[in-house]
Structures are given as structure tokens and as C-alpha cells.
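fyi for ur records
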Amino acid sequence: MIESKTQVAIIGGGPSGMLLSLLLHQEGIDNVVLERSTRAHVLSRIRAGVLEWSTVELLRRAGIGKRMDREGHVHNGTQVAWGGEHTLLFDINTYTGRHLMAYGQTAITEDLYQAHDALGSEVHHQVEQVELHELTGQPFVTYTQDGQTHRLNCDAIAGCDGFHGVSRGSIPANVQRNFEKVYPFGWLGILSETPPLDDIWYIQHPDGFALASQRNPMLSRYYVQCDLNDRPEDWSDERFWQTLLERMPPKLAAQVVTGPSIEKSIAPLRSFVTEPMRYGQLFLVGDAAHIVPPTGAKGLNLAMSDVYYLWRALVGRYRHNSEDLVDRYSQVALKRVWDTTRFSWWVTTLLHRFPDQTDFDLRTRLSELQYLSDSPVAMHQLAEQYGGFPIEDWG
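which gave:
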């Protein structure tokens, strides 16, 4: 067995794990990242692309904001259309002074890996049989790589390995409490090398939800609500574009540039939270601890706030010899997680067609959209939530 030692073992080489690693390195805190996939696979994953301003500022603070500021698209809010002719801006800037940034997660991951290459960080890919040990004592991680068994001794473990990773499953069942809601539909999404619409658009339609988003000036991301039993191969490009355009108001549909899809996939929607987010010296981050439906564009942003809290907690431990922030990590992170989970559930319910939805349900949701349109007080509350809940500036 090959044995080594670090201060923090980070399980998962996606954006949350790599950002946490980078921030810790910049504070002189030694860490090692273990990732089960190849580097090429991690860099090819297509994920979220709308950033809260707190995420933008955190990426800048980590020193990887130059490309984002050059290529990202700043938005004052998100447009919503319903009833074939009504439109409304979820006006974040007017009511909060903040913005959103459209900048793809793939690009963020590329930026992070380039920063780690410059640092010469220790990032191991294609690790297998990862197991976490002695979490309430002196922790260590075992894994295999290239046929060799490794033992990585550490002081703390950051579980950044997603919903299906090993980290959450390493917490005893009698310690965990899980909360879950599965939605009875999915999102069919495509990427096309076509110019996107100028704004991000949510579409509420009796036949189902639709979304127009963007990745860069020549890369568009579109979604339509679909049946959970559908497969991507059930949806030809022609069927997708026809469905999308039918759900849009005619004036908006006329602005859409269609073209061949370069990627097509279906994502199920769920809300999931596990408590606590800390067990001994294991700290859960991002999708390892919580999942939100993508309607509110909160998944990546919520992971970034976890990274912030854990980074400051570990700085408190190693730089200031204090366990205060470490001990409060789960409590503080879960406050923002539940606030965001509630908002994501609400906006998903407002904008989607549910299989058992009645005409009464539809009319009340249309009435709520009109109320948001007419009431500055209601819009202020929405803007505060959609723009991102405050991140406690601790440590």
C-alpha cells in the first residue's frame, strides 16, 4: 500500500471540489483532490450556466474571473412569458442592485483546471474503490489507482462528489435524515450552435414549461418540459423545435434561430436535502448534500456557497486555531440550503404543468404571475430570492 498525508482530502474534481482546493491552496492549506472520472470527462460535462452575483464575486476572489468577465453575459434578471402575450421581468437589479451572469459551468471548470495546472496541484483522476475511514477520529481515505492501493491520511474530508458519490453514504444511516420530493416530469435540453436570445426566458404554458438560456454568443441552451418516461431519442430536432416554438409567445418564437442539436439529454427533477452536512471530520458540499430542481438556477450557486463556508471554516482551523466556524458549518450552510430549496420548489410549481393539474390550479398560477407583475412589494421579495440569498460573511 502506498501511504501519503495531507491536511484536507477532497473527494470529487468537479467545480466545487476544484474551487475549494484552489481557495485552500491560496491560504497555504495542503489538500489533495480525488476524482473517479478522467479529466477529459470532467471537462466535457454540460451543466448550469446562470450565476448569482455572490458566485461571480467568489470566482473573482479565487483569481479565475478574467475569462468570465470577458465572455460572460450580465443580466438584470430573467424574463417570464405566459398566456401567449404576457411578459414579466424578474427584476433583480432594480430591487436589489445585483445582477446575474450567464457563464457556463463547463467554462468555469476549464478555468479552475488551468489555475490548478499553474499551481501544480495534486489532483488524481480515475481513482476507484474510494472508501472513507475513521470519520469521528483521525480520518483517512483508501482508494486504488492504476492497480495500486493507496492510503491518504488527513485531518478533514470534503465530500464534493455529488449525489451518487461515496461521501454521503459514508455517514451512518441512524445519523442522517433525508428529505426528498420527486417531480413528475423532466427537462429535455439541447445545445445548438446558434445565436441565443438576448435574455434568459422562462415560459409558462398549459402544455408545459420551456426555457431559453445561453452559453456564449454562438451557443444556445433550450429546454422543454417532458414526460419522465421519454428518452432523448424520442425527440427529433424537428419535434423539439416545434414544441419549443409552440410554447413561446409568437413574437418571441420569431426571434429564435433553430439549428441542429449538438447535445441532447433529459434530466429528472427533484428536491433533496440531507442533514447534517457534517459528520465528524467529513463535510458534505454541493450535490452530495442537496439537489434542487434547475428552475431557479440554484444548484451550482448553492454548491459555491457551501464552498465558501467550508473554506472559511478550514481557514479558521488552520490559520487561527479556532473550531468555531467548523462546528457551525452544517447549521449555517443548511439555513441557506433550505431557503433556496423552498424558493426552487415554489418557482417550479408556479411555472410547470403537473399531470394532475386542474383548470383551477392553472388559473391560480396565472393569477400569481399577474400579481407579481402588478405588485412592487411581491416583485421585491421575488428579486431578493432569485438574486440569491445572502451569504453570511463569517471568518
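The radius of gyration is 21 Å. thats all i got for now
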